[in-house]
């Protein structure tokens, strides 16, 4: 695709040779001749002077002083949002895989009482239980298991080997990636006098609202009673565990290997980084940001704050504690030296003559 056509596609302003042929998209530090790349995060600005790309997408308001350091010219396309524009080019140069064929595969097992829309794509060895409702333009990839009384909304996609247990409800345009289990039993056991445990019945459901996306190999437990609820527009990374009766507010994003204990309520528009652990029965305020590997032992009640650490404190407090901790080795050395000097002084005083001795 010629560069002028790319600029037109992106509603961008081109500076440079519009006849350059672009054949690939690439990251700025890896790009070569014939590639188009982008600069959205200014920490990558250092690569502008060295990138081998033929063209660069930048925001309209970015000033590239490093351009004067280049020995080889590079074309510039100024756009409203370089990152979103680059994603559009990714789709242009690397179209998504061919979708599942609209049909019910002959190896699929569908209960007679299930209501299936006419224009669905149901792959090989899919099983759909009794009284399910499968909406229009849904794709169920091979090996997916849908339990009894499940409903799935329009245009949702469940990739290979997803399991949705009985009674769960999935909204419209939901994407669930391979290996994820929706509606597994919550972890509930009551201790008995003899040291064994009695399983607490888990009879609730999971509700996933519209436009949510759930990564691969996640487990979202059904409620003991009531609902575990994933809000509209929530995005979960791979390998996340959501325990029973958890609520995650709309448009919250959570990175991989995070674990959320039972009955915790997470607000709207939160950002939770990887390997975060949240204890049970707490509340997280709207727009909270929690840094990677943090442990959250109690509720966060003020919206819009950033927390980090184990246990998690507001980030400024955590940074102060870390700065103090870095000084501990030198402080310990100083304390030892002071202790030694005190011992020397005490020894001198012990042997010093007093007026009564004269």
Overview of the molecule:
The chain has 358 residues and is an alpha/beta fold. It has 4 helices and 37 strands. It has an 11-stranded mixed sheet. The chain has a 10-stranded parallel sheet with strand order 6-9-12-15-18-23-26-29-32-35, with no helix packed on it. It has a 9-stranded parallel sheet with strand order 7-10-13-16-21-24-27-30-33, with no helix packed on it. Strand 19 (189-191) and strand 20 (197-199) form a beta hairpin. The chain is flat, with a radius of gyration of 29 Å.
Entry keywords:
15% helix, Udp-n-acetylmuramoylalanyl-d-glutamate--2,6- Diaminopimelate Ligase, Chain: A, domain 1, UDP N-Acetylglucosamine Acyltransferase, domain 1, flat, 4 helices, alpha/beta, 10-stranded parallel beta sheet, 358 residues, 11-stranded mixed beta sheet
């Amino acid at each position: 695709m010629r560069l002028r056509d790319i600029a037109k596609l992106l509603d961008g302003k081109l500076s440079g040779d519009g006849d350059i042929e672009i054949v690939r998209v690439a990251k700025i530090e890896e790009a070569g001749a014939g590639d188009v790349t982008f600069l959205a995060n200014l920490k990558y600005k250092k690569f502008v002077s060295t990138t081998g790309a033929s063209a660069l997408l930048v925001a309209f308001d970015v000033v590239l002083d490093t351009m004067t350091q280049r020995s080889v010219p590079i074309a510039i396309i100024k756009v409203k949002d370089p990152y979103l524009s680059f994603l559009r080019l990714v789709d242009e140069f690397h179209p998504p895989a061919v979708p599942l064929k609209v049909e019910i595969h002959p190896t699929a097992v569908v209960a007679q009482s299930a209501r299936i829309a006419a224009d669905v794509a149901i792959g090989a060895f899919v099983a759909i239980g009794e009284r399910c409702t499968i909406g229009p333009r849904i794709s169920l990839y091979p090996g997916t298991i849908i339990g009894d009384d499940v409903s799935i909304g329009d245009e949702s996609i469940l990739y290979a080997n997803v399991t949705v247990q009985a009674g769960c409800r999935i909204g419209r345009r939901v994407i669930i990636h391979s290996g994820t289990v929706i509606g597994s039993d919550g972890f509930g056991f009551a201790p008995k006098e003899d040291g064994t445990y009695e399983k607490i019945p888990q009879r609730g459901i999971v509700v996933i609202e519209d436009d949510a996306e759930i990564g691969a190999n996640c487990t979202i437990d059904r409620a003991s009673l009531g609902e575990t609820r994933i809000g509209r527009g929530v995005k979960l990374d791979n390998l996340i565990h959501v325990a029973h009766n958890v609520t995650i507010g709309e448009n919250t994003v959570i990175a991989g290997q995070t674990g959320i204990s039972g009955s915790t309520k997470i607000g709207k528009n939160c950002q939770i980084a990887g390997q975060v652990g949240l204890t049970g029965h707490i509340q997280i305020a709207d727009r909270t940001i929690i840094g990677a590997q943090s442990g959250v032992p109690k509720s966060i009640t003020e919206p819009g704050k950033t927390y980090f650490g184990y246990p998690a404190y507001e980030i400024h407090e955590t940074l102060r504690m870390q700065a103090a901790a870095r000084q501990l080795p030198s402080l310990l050395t100083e304390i030892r030296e002071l202790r030694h000097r005190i011992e020397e002084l005490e020894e001198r005083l012990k042997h010093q003559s007093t007026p009564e001795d004269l």
